[in-house]
Amino acid sequence: MKPRFCKRVGTTMSKVIVFLEAKDSVALRPASLHAITFARILSQALGTSYSFVLLGHGIAGLAETVRGYGAQRVYVVDDPLLAEPLAERYAPSLRQVMELANASHILGAATAIGKDILPRLASLMNSAFVSDCIGIEVLENTLHWRRPVCAGNAIAYCVSETERTVVTIRHAEFEAASSNGAMSPIESLGAAPVEAAASRIELFGYDAVDNSRPDLTEARVVVSGGRALAGRFFEVLGPLADTLGAALGATRAACDGGFAPGDFQVGQTGKVVAPELYVAVGISGAIQHVAGMKGARIVVAINSDPLAPIVSLADYTLIGDLFQLVPELVGALRRHAGES
Amino acid sequence: MRILVPLKQVFDPDHANKIRLSDDNRRLDVVSLERKTNPFDEYALEAALRLTEDGRAPRQRQGETIVVTLGPSDTEVMLRAGLATGADRAFRVVAEDDGLDAGCVAQVLAGLALRESCDLVLMGKQSVDGDSNEVGQRLAAILGWPQATFASRIIAHTDSRLEVEREIDGGVQRVIVTLPAVVTVDLRIVTPDAVRSSITPNDFHYAPGVRFAPLPAIMQARRKPMSVIKIDELERPVKRTLRYVRYELPATKFGGRVVSTPTELVELLTCEAKVL
User: Contact B254/A119, CB-based, under 8 Å?
Assistant: First the structure.
């Protein structure tokens, strides 16, 4: 019987690769720092090292900045073919690095890009794919991957049955890694040939959303609103978010109602956030929404209904008319900021 | 355009908080929960119907939509509902849920898409039980087709070129895919202007959401073809790669306190919670 390398802990082939995501070729997407933390946890459990892979075009400067995070090696594939993160182009180059490094695991943050590319890579390598991992457990020398299912209403433990395993990390569950000083060597590679399918998909345009506020999945504070805000969503929540330096989020109902843009949606089918502080304004707390924010450390609810499910979840609740309470809270926060 | 739309039967996500575990924690006990079609798959079916019609005259189909599921015989109800909504044919691939993972499902779908010469597989971005967001990408890789995941808008420029808008972190990306391809859909694919075939005029707007089958269509759906096939017939290498060994229920957090004024809240956030 063929040994199951991935399943058994501490075998010779164990080696972890972290897929780091570049943002406009010049910066690291902060979610990748959280993935590095997970890589440290995983490589410690496996008794092995971790390396990074960075794909893109014009990323030499960025590669320098990731050398201080304790990776055994930083694989850099800098090629015009990889200017845009399309799965048909990226997956073959990631597979090439896995083979070259003889690695057992590759992991990346569960961002839109990670969720798009990494399952395709798993299929190219005939490997198991673990989606949205929130932790690991070693039981009887076997690695178990923890992941939420059913909108977070149950946690599953799964075991990979293939030599290699591809993983996306629910990055909000892990701290951002900090640099530890040592300088990892860089290994530059040419891009692997793209898949034939790459010729049948082309990037046509990109509309960035207003990014004057922090990115929703990476913000320390999130202010979210429900349908009750209706056409006054930005008028009411904007000043609160600005005062707190927060990202804005919304329920599915608020997005579907057209009161907030689609990419504001927090929940099972939207974004998963785990900020230090989550302020839920006019949000009842439907399970699909809660699935996206229950990792928040402190939850504040502002709601007119004392029996709303969000109240039993929140650490602090203000009961009353949100159109009156939110401006009062903005005033109280500004006074507090003035004092300190 | 011939479109394959995979449907998955899931338990009603609105009751996901009623999930219990089996005594040995090895399975989710969902027997008592109501079943329904995975919502994202329903959206994919609506998108497929919009792509194969002139929105002004939806009864005259301009292409073919095939629905498929993997499951036991009780999933045929869901396929019949898909046929009543407007799909032309259905396949049920005989399977039990326990033995399959996303990779197996992708192999089976690949086999069927090739056998039926489909131009497009249009499917939900994830199921609301497994939540793994994986089958569409795997399927595209197996077939060697391009993938456009998390689509919020699909405009057919011609019968073989689609403009797809994808919701990604920080913005919306627009790609052009040449068929055959795999497209997975996000929630906003059922908004009034989200999907347009090459013959539906620009000024036509759909009603929001998915369409419902009129009663005569439900009767007619009984006469539409439904084939039951076995996995072996598709001759694909179906091998499991991930095994689910046990489950636990998440720790529940019990409520905090009701605060009387915003000023008191700011004090608590500062001194007690220490988040300000």
Answer: no
